[in-house]
Amino acid sequence: MNYKSYRIALALRVLGLLISLLVLAFGIVLPNTYVLIAGICLSLFSIYQLYHFVLKRFVAMDDFFESIKYRDFSRWFSETHGAQDIRELHKGFNLVNHTIKSIDSEREAQFLYLQKILEMVDIGIIAYNVESGAVLWANDSILKTLDLPAFKNISFMEKRHPQIFDELFETYHSTTASVLLEMKQESLKVLISDTVFEMEENSFKLIVLQNIEETLNQNESEAWKKLLSVMTHEIMNSIAPISSLAETLETNIQNNLDDAKSNPLNIEDLNSGIKTIKKRSDGLLKFAKTFRSLNKVTELNLAEVKIAELFKNIQTLMQPSIESNGIAIDFLIEPPNLQINIDSYLIEQVLINLILNAIDACQHIEDANIRLIAHKNLNGTGIIKVLDNGKGIPEEIRDSVFVPFFSTKKTGSGVGLSLSKQIMLLHKGRIQIKSSEGEGTVISLLF
């Protein structure tokens, strides 16, 4: 901002005051009554001009600061009237007001945008003042979930639903917790998480509430549909030929009983048919046992396991099978004394499944190689990888390998990877697959 005119005007007034004081001094020294009176008048006029000049600008600044104090950013200061320096000062004030108004408009737009988003989500959100209980924000979802009208203070909940009040507002959930809320007509299963934050010397608590009852019911329904589809398909595949063969054998036997001479009974065909029925029945029984194995792992026996010992057991167990297929296997642990908190029996079963899959993938591959690598990443996550340079997994079936009973092997049950995934989920870990067709596969177990 240019203050040149202000400096010039101020300098002239100060100079005028000095000249007036000199005239006054001459009037006293001479002494001369006329000069003295002129000096007094000029001095008073110069002092008034200087005072009025400075005061006018301080009043303008005071008006501006008052508008800031009361957030009156709509005020406009004239840029066409008054001295040049005051017009420049007003331009600065207007620029500040315009900038603040723009910031406020952006903040308001962002707030409205966020408000609309929070209203649209299915997750209930409420924030309130910890000391006074005054509700800062509550979206429609939480009111709908709790079957409540809009309320301004959480004390309303304390009177209406004491149990829900204690669970939501009195209990601190350091991690996301699954809670059963007792409503008037039903019990509601929800996920609750909360946090406390400071804002303008006040403490607020933010609570996030998600109704998982409908989600669980929907997922359960979908799981049952998929399960029934798989079970129906597999059972029909076994029962249909059994039923057809049994009907044929029954017809042959009945015809023999009605007229033995015209319809002689072939014992070999009868024996073969019964064996086929038995074989199919055994297959159906095996399928049922295989399906049951998917659900038998429900708890873990966790311990700090030395990965070197785990790999040694795997090597002893799998070396003959691997060597008989002409495949090399390597083990790498970094650091050598690495330990991971796992259920060694179950993870050993997972690794056996993965190695068997790798052996199958490396069939008819030159210089076939399988590697087991264990290490920890920078954030301390334990990782075990099984790598092979086999034929890889085609992209079109990559998303289906963890589906129960899905298998590309003629003799496969399609349970190995499904069971491995369940075991990793019980460890609160993950299993990841990276594969390139014709180059190999990397399966990572992240704990």
TrEMBL record:
<feature type="transmembrane region" description="Helical">
    <location>
        <begin position="12"/>
        <end position="30"/>
    </location>
</feature>
<dbReference type="Pfam" id="PF02518">
    <property type="entry name" value="HATPase_c"/>
</dbReference>
<dbReference type="InterPro" id="IPR005467">
    <property type="entry name" value="His_kinase_dom"/>
</dbReference>
<keyword id="KW-0472">Membrane</keyword>
<dbReference type="GO" id="GO:0007234">
    <property type="term" value="P:osmosensory signaling via phosphorelay pathway"/>
</dbReference>
<dbReference type="GO" id="GO:0004673">
    <property type="term" value="F:protein histidine kinase activity"/>
</dbReference>
<keyword id="KW-1133">Transmembrane helix</keyword>
<keyword id="KW-0902">Two-component regulatory system</keyword>
<dbReference type="InterPro" id="IPR003594">
    <property type="entry name" value="HATPase_dom"/>
</dbReference>
<dbReference type="InterPro" id="IPR004358">
    <property type="entry name" value="Sig_transdc_His_kin-like_C"/>
</dbReference>
<keyword id="KW-0547">Nucleotide-binding</keyword>
<dbReference type="InterPro" id="IPR050351">
    <property type="entry name" value="BphY/WalK/GraS-like"/>
</dbReference>
<dbReference type="GO" id="GO:0005524">
    <property type="term" value="F:ATP binding"/>
</dbReference>
<feature type="transmembrane region" description="Helical">
    <location>
        <begin position="36"/>
        <end position="55"/>
    </location>
</feature>
<keyword id="KW-0067">ATP-binding</keyword>
<dbReference type="GO" id="GO:0030295">
    <property type="term" value="F:protein kinase activator activity"/>
</dbReference>
<protein>
    <recommendedName>
        <fullName>histidine kinase</fullName>
        <ecNumber>2.7.13.3</ecNumber>
    </recommendedName>
</protein>
<feature type="domain" description="Histidine kinase">
    <location>
        <begin position="230"/>
        <end position="447"/>
    </location>
</feature>
<keyword id="KW-0812">Transmembrane</keyword>
<keyword id="KW-0418">Kinase</keyword>
<keyword id="KW-0808">Transferase</keyword>
<dbReference type="GO" id="GO:0000156">
    <property type="term" value="F:phosphorelay response regulator activity"/>
</dbReference>
<dbReference type="InterPro" id="IPR036890">
    <property type="entry name" value="HATPase_C_sf"/>
</dbReference>
